[in-house]
Amino acid sequence: PQGTMAFTGKYEFEGDENYDAFVQKIGLSSDKVEMGRNCKIVTEVVQNGNDFTWTQHFPGGRTTTNTFTVGKEADMETFGGKKFQATVKLEDGKLVAEFPNYRHTAEISGGKLVEVSAQTSRAVHKRQRKSPK
Questions:
Q1: What is the CATH number of the domain that holds 114?
Q2: pLDDT tens digit string along 17-33?
Q3: Three-class DSSP category at 62
Q4: Which residue in 30, 43, 91, 124 has the fewest CB atoms around it within 10 Å?
């Protein structure tokens, strides 16, 4: 292990906060929202220095695996199945990735894997007016 970067392990779902508000903001379809809400995902992380294999095991046998090296661009896949490219960085012992419409951080705290997804895009309200005739 390299100080604060010992991520290797298997982590079972324990609980989450603000799930519904977050997934609605990022535009996840209602079937995916429902699937994710009661989904006891097991996250398995294999770390070799700066190289990571991050696998999420969903009930029913489906898995999503992202393989990346800290500081290098990698092909990734979101929980909803969208593919994109991101560069995972290390900031204050946390892995940080910019997903298409949110920022995801992961850290080991008290022996637990703590992941936080924060919305980065802002809602913009645009109003048009026409001039009276």
A1: 2.40.128.20
A2: 888 777 777 777 787 77
A3: coil
A4: 124
